[in-house]
Each structure stands twice: as structure tokens, then as C-alpha cells.
Amino acid sequence: MYILGDYHTHTTYSHGKNSVLENALIAKKKGLKEIAITDHGINHKCFAVKKSDLEKLRQDCNEAEKLTGIKIYLGLECNFISYDGDIDVDKDVLKYLDIFLVGYHKLVKAKTKKEEISLFLRNNISKIFPVSKSQIDKNTNMYINAMKKYNINIITHLNHSMKVDVMKVALEAKKHNILIELNGKRICFSDKEMLDMANAGVKFIINSDAHSCNKVGEVNNAINLVTRLNIPHDLVVNLDKLPKFKGNENELIQ
Ligand SMILES: [Zn+2]
Ligand SMILES: [Zn+2]
Fold first, then answer.
1. Which of 18, 79, 98, 169 qualifies as a cystine partner to 41, CB 3.0-4.6 A?
2. C-beta of residue 157 within 8 angstroms of C-beta of residue 188
3. Strand partners, 173
């Protein structure tokens, strides 16, 4: 059992350590057929891809694809910028992308200062105090709103740093044909939640979230989870097969 593609990898365009070509070369060496380059969305305060770099990043992907024979998708791992489910993308950004990932990250410039403080503080104070039920509901609704508004392909590291009702998010994702990531670095839901999602027919994708080229394709913890819980392989779109992503146009739904 192995993955044929890794659709969440970072490069020096955000805070990864290696180039697009270096990620692709390692992927090829490890027997992968496809990868995606998914650096951080444009509102991240420390690690954002610059809008002005997207053209160059697209060229790098095309060149690395030619040199290695590996298919390379260009994506971004975008950020929430409001509780209404707004994301830091616009048509000028989306026109470069083949796939569109969304995950919660700290230190993101939000739509308003008030939301910026709330998105960061209310969720990260959890290290000291548990997150309240009303905050979890607010976070869950943010994900649901975003999935209704945008043509998202993958939700990355769900429940990491921002607690949500995992099942509610996953069921909404299923409605829109959005994949829930099993992240190679961290899986932040319980075995019960994983089994409930699988029983409901939610679709998953296994990705490394590599920030250096030697981590591309390293997803043992996700593979172990699938094995240990006996998750049907047809629910994991890149396990022993290649996924088909919905919509190449990546247009906003609204
Ligand atoms: Zn992330
Ligand atoms: Zn990432």
C-alpha cells in the first residue's frame, strides 16, 4: 500500500527549504507519479507566497514537470480571513492554480483587526484553557461557510490549532466533493472521528506537508492510521491510484 501522489508540499516560495525541482526529483526517486506545490496563501504574515511570484512559480512547475516527467500541480495552502468563511484568494491568484487547499494558520492578516485577534487568540489560548463550545461552533461554521463559497479541493490538517466539530465539517466537505487530508505530520482527530467519517463515506487524501524535499512522500503515520482502523482504500483517493481533482478552472463558486 502506497501513495502515488503527494499533494501538499512547500518550497522556498514560502518557508520550505527546497525548490520545486528538488521536491519533484525526490518524488520521482521515491516512485511518486505526481506532486503538488502548495505554498502558504498570500495573507500569511510570515510565510506567504508573493502574488508577484506566482507567474515564476508556475514556470518553475512547468519546467520541473518537463525535466522529471512527474506531473506537477500548482496549488496554494490558503488561509481563513473571516468567520464568514472568506479566504485569502481572488481571481488573480486562482487563475494560476490547478488545486486549492485551505487550512487554518496562525499569524494571518484577516479581513478586520477584530477578527484577526479573535481568530488567533480565541483558538490559541486553548493551550492554557479549553476552547469553549461556542468558539468550536463558530470555527465549524467558518469552515462550512468557506466550503459553500469556494471551489476548494482539500481541507488540510483539520482540527489542528483550531478546534472544530470534525464530523460536521467532514459531512459538508462530502457534499461539495472536498477531500479531508490525512496529514503526514499530524492527525488531529480521534479514531472514533476517523471511523465515523469513513462510515459516512467521506473521502480522504494522504499528503506529507513536506517543508523539505527529503520529507516529500513521507506519510507513514497516515498510512498506519488507515491500516490500523481498516479504512476502505477506495475512500483514500491517492492510495494505489491517482486522484481526479474537480474543476480545472478553480473559479469561485459565488
Ligand atoms: Zn498548514
Ligand atoms: Zn502546509
1. 79
2. yes
3. none
Which tens digits make up the pLDDT trace of 169-183?
999 999 999 999 999
Q: Name the stretches of the chain with pLDDT < 50.
A: 250
Which DSSP state fits 58? H
State how far the Cα of 132 lies from the Cα of 93, in Å rounded to an integer: 35
Centre of ligand 2 from the C-alpha of residue 157, in Å: 8
pTM: 0.96
Cα of 72 to ligand 2 centre, how many Å?
16
Where on the phi/psi map is residue 212: left (φ > 0), alpha (ψ -120 to 50), or beta? beta
Which pLDDT does position 124 carry in this prediction?
78
- Ligand with smallest separation from the Cα of 9: 2
Count of Cβ atoms closer than 10 Å to residue 191 Cβ: 11
β-strand 34-40 against 204-207: which pairing, if any? unpaired
- Ligand 1 center–CA 117 separation, angstroms: 19
